[in-house]
Specification:
The chain has 351 residues and is mostly beta strands. The chain has two domains: 3-222, no CATH class; 277-342, no CATH class. The chain contains four helices and 15 strands. The chain has helices at 176-185, 187-192, 198-204, 244-256; strands spanning 21-23, 27-38, 44-54, 62-67, 72-73, 94-97, 105-124, 136-143, 146-152, 168-171, 220-222, 263-264, 272-273, 290-293, 339-342. It is elongated, with a radius of gyration of 23 Å.
């Protein structure tokens, strides 16, 4: 497969095929991770750690790891360190330059020999709660040019939780013996002290033990529209895990049912259209005299970011700094990139 051919010809507009099959214990020599897009960063996409386990329960023997990214922060080799899942140091993670108008970033992992895969765990970029939005959102995985996974990765978080997260886990088998062997070599599960028997791994990953019985290597598990097998376990939701398309349609449907100022393209999808977007700020989180926002983005029917370069924005009090809301600088803690204005709970609502 040529690098240019990796794209969305066989996918919907958001880059992930609607129907994806996960094979039983696939084997190959070259694994490719295709980072289709980040959660919500227009310039970067990144990962923390990638863990790969074989059908023997051992970690895969890696010969080399390369990427097509021309601009990177951190070393791509750090993805395979195997012990960085709790790391929040950007120097120990990997970040690549991203552009929605160019081909996707990919990472090639070549094994030392033909390898049969049993499990892959993805730890997303986790520098901070804000910069976690640089983590990969939609991911494709290919083994020797054959698609073995496609779906959404959960958005990471940086703060300590009462229950440790398990990353995004992709299983290629439900065989008890293989899972038991994996648990003996799984550094994270050993440190967490959560796996004490074979079935514990299945329980923690929310995998039904009545899953398809062991089948030959050419068979597949059918999981249409699933992000991953047991991908988000004990993880506080920093982002909605539903497909972005359905979430957008739901929001637009709610708006379309109550607004007389907009029209719909059809009664089936309730895609709203209009020229003026009116927003009122009724209350803040406790400040007595100020209220503000960092940014506003508009998404199309498939979750694509709409161009706001020709939009104008005005505030009721005439504050010109309100134009910062459309600057696109949403992953920031810089006050100069945000909009803050005077506010009174008893006064007029800002719009």
């Amino acid at each position: 497969m040529e690098d240019e051919e990796i794209g969305e010809s066989d996918s919907p507009t958001n880059g992930v095929p609607f129907d994806c099959t996960i094979p039983e214990l696939p084997s190959g020599e070259k694994l490719r991770l295709v980072l289709l897009r980040p959660w919500d960063d227009s310039n970067f996409v990144g990962l923390n750690t990638v863990e790969i386990f074989t059908s023997q329960g051992t970690r895969a023997d890696i010969e080399s790891i390369t990427t097509n990214a021309e601009e990177c922060q951190g070393s791509v080799e750090s993805l395979m360190c195997g012990n960085g899942f709790r790391c929040t140091d950007p120097k120990e993670m990997w970040l690549a330059k991203y552009s929605a108008t160019e081909g996707p970033v990919w990472v090639d992992i070549r094994f030392a020999q033909l390898t049969k895969l049993a499990m892959i765990r993805i730890w997303n970029y986790n520098e901070s709660r804000v910069h976690a939005l640089r983590g990969v959102h939609e991911l494709r995985i290919e083994l020797d040019e054959h698609l073995i996974f496609c779906g959404e990765m959960s958005c990471a978080y940086s703060e300590q939780a009462v229950v440790q997260p398990l990353g995004d886990t992709i299983l290629f088998t439900t065989n008890d013996q293989i899972l038991e062997a994996i648990s003996e070599n799984d550094t994270f599960l050993q440190e967490a002290g959560e796996v004490t028997r074979t079935t514990s791994l299945l329980d923690l990953l929310h995998i039904d033990q009545a899953a398809p019985s062991p089948i030959d290597g050419n068979a597949v598990f059918n999981f249409p529209n699933l992000a991953s097998l047991g991908g988000v376990v004990h993880r506080p939701h920093t982002g909605d895990l539903r497909r972005r398309t359905s979430l957008t349609e739901e929001m637009l449907s709610d708006v379309g049912s109550t607004s007389d100022a907009v029209s719909t393209t059809s009664e089936d999808d309730n895609i709203v259209t209009g020229r003026v977007f009116h927003m009122e700020l009724h209350a803040n989180w406790g400040a007595s005299d100020i209220i503000g926002l960092t940014g506003v983005q508009f998404l199309g029917p498939h979750g694509n970011l709409l161009d706001n370069s020709r939009c104008t924005v005005k505030a009721l009090n005439g504050d010109d700094s309100v134009k910062r809301l459309l600057s696109g600088q949403n992953l920031t803690t810089n006050v100069d990139d945000m909009w803050l204005t005077k506010f009174s709970p008893d006064g007029p609502r800002f719009a």
